From TrEMBL:
KW Glycoprotein (keyword) present: no
Entry-linked Pfam families: Aminotran_3
A single MF term (Gene Ontology): transaminase activity
Lineage summary: Bacteria, Pseudomonadati, Bacteroidota, Chitinophagia, Chitinophagales
Domain of life: Bacteria
Similarity section: Belongs to the class-III pyridoxal-phosphate-dependent aminotransferase family.
InterPro entries given in the database record: Aminotrans_3, Aminotrans_3_PPA_site, PyrdxlP-dep_Trfase, PyrdxlP-dep_Trfase_major, PyrdxlP-dep_Trfase_small
Cofactor: pyridoxal 5'-phosphate
UniProt protein name: Aspartate aminotransferase family protein
Keywords: Aminotransferase, Pyridoxal phosphate, Transferase
Gene3D superfamilies found in the cross-reference section: Aspartate Aminotransferase, domain 1, Type I PLP-dependent aspartate aminotransferase-like (Major domain)
Transferase among keywords: yes
Length: 426
């Protein structure tokens, strides 16, 4: 850590700074469901490097595809025949992907979707939801969406805040921000303000503050309202894409957005994202009204990683298992919390889920997550870590195709032990 502080601003991953982990850890490599630190310790990994490693660490098919394509030299956007092949593959897999473009990461693809929506509608603003995260670029860094929201425990309306210094003046005015899962409020807001709104953007499952499913009818209602008012519906599938199903949340929930954004799991973490959508919207790019550039987009090794990842997912269809293991782990954690007298809220669809310490049996929207006891969560996360299990600091777990049933049992047993110790120490 001392060495890192001399060269890396902040010295260590923000996760450790935010959650006050007592140890500074640097990892050397990963394999399957495991990751290894610089001291040679092994960890069972439920972070998957913040989600992308849906096949687990160092999947051999992905590694050999990258190696093979790299040997052919580096070719980037619009130069490599494989870019076309990948687009055809995604068109086949994702229901709304009539046509698309590639970028480097989720944040860039979100901004492209905003541009397209503004260009087509001629309207200036976007409607987004409290607690949702859409990247770290300027405009979206204003809002009620910081993944480490520091808001004090309160169920009152949290104030919009900038979570970075140095943002441009006016960035906060780009957004109208509403609580999620409240269709009547969305309805009345759009009725009144649709003339200024280019797009509604949502995570189809809210994964960045708690892990919250849409209420029945909410996404359907949102779709209908966007149709009524000629507003673009943007699904931010950076987390849900290739995780809930090969066609993302839009396939899982059977709702067709106008534009959507994929990244993370698409290429096992190699830097590529996609903005996909209906021609009627994407024509803004086709016709050259919206510029889409980027020297390093769609490089052939990253395309190779994406093709290999998607091929393995298609061939092996691990989704039934990923859901089953996720749900098995969720119920095991609930049981462990019950036995040790902790009030733990475990929420999410299974392939990803959230654990938080709160008296609330169910969470519906961001404000419900403000009651979580962050101190207890930090104790839990570091207790698990000390026993060789990694979870994302804000309480999010990801399941990969490399996890085994034995991994799930190990995590449940370890959690029970950690929760038991926390109880005795209170
Ligand atoms: N949208 C969502 C829903 C995300 O979870 C993230 C990243 N966690 C992003 C956008 C930004 O993606 P990236 O970090 O690849 O820029």
């Amino acid at each position: 850590l001392e060495r890192a502080k001399k060269v890396l601003a902040g010295g260590v991953s923000s996760e450790f700074r935010k959650y006050n982990h007592p140890h500074a850890l640097f990892y050397t490599h990963g394999s399957g469901s495991r990751i290894y630190d610089a001291d040679g310790n092994e960890y069972l990994d439920f972070t998957l490097s913040q989600g992308p490693l849906i096949l687990g660490h160092s999947h051999p098919r992905v590694l050999s595809a990258v190696q093979e394509y790299s040997a052919g030299g580096q070719l980037f956007a619009g130069q490599h025949i494989r870019e076309l092949e990948l687009a055809e593959q995604l068109q086949r897999l994702i229901p709304s992907a009539e046509i698309m473009r590639f970028c480097l990461d989720g944040s860039e693809a979100v901004q492209t979707a905003f541009r397209v929506a503004r260009a087509k509608t001629g309207r200036p603003k976007f409607l987004r939801f409290e607690g949702h995260y859409h990247g770290w670029l300027d405009n979206v860094s204003w809002g009620i969406s910081a993944p480490d929201a520091t808001a004090a425990g309160s169920r009152n309306a949290p104030a919009a805040h900038a979570w970075s210094a140095g943002l441009p003046a006016g960035a906060r005015d780009e957004f109208i921000i509403l609580p999620w899962n409240d269709l009547p409020l969305l309805q009345s807001t759009l009725a009144e303000r649709h003339g200024e709104i280019a797009a509604v953007i949502t995570e189809p499952v809210m994964c960045n503050n708690g892990c919250i499913l849409p209420q029945p009818g909410f996404l359907e209602g949102m779709r209908a309202l966007c149709d009524t008012y000629g507003i673009a519906l943007i699904f931010d599938e950076v987390i849900t894409g290739f995780r809930l199903s090969l066609g993302g949340a839009q396939q899982y929930f059977n709702i067709t957005p106008d534009l959507s954004v994929f990244a993370k799991a698409m290429a096992s973490g190699y830097p590529i994202s996609a903005i996909v959508g209906k021609r009627a919207w994407m024509d803004q790019i086709t016709e050259g009204r919206v510029v889409h550039a980027g020297t390093m987009n769609a490089g052939n090794p990253t395309i190779a990683a994406a093709q290999a990842t998607l091929q393995v997912l298609e061939e092996t269809q691990p989704y039934e298992r990923i859901f089953r293991y996720g749900q098995m782990l969720m119920s095991g954690l609930r049981r462990a919390a019950g036995r040790t007298g902790h009030q733990m809220t475990v929420s999410g669809p299974g392939p990803m889920f959230h654990t938080g310490f709160s008296g609330q049996p169910a969470i519906r929207e961001y404000r419900d997550t403000l009651d979580f006891d962050r101190g207890l969560l930090a104790l839990f996360i570091s207790g698990m870590h000390d026993r060789g299990i990694r979870i994302i600091g804000r309480g999010l777990w990801y399941i990969s195709a490399a996890h085994t049933e034995a991994d799930i049992h190990l995590a449940v047993d370890t959690a029970e032990e950690v929760l038991g110790n926390m109880q005795h120490n209170q």
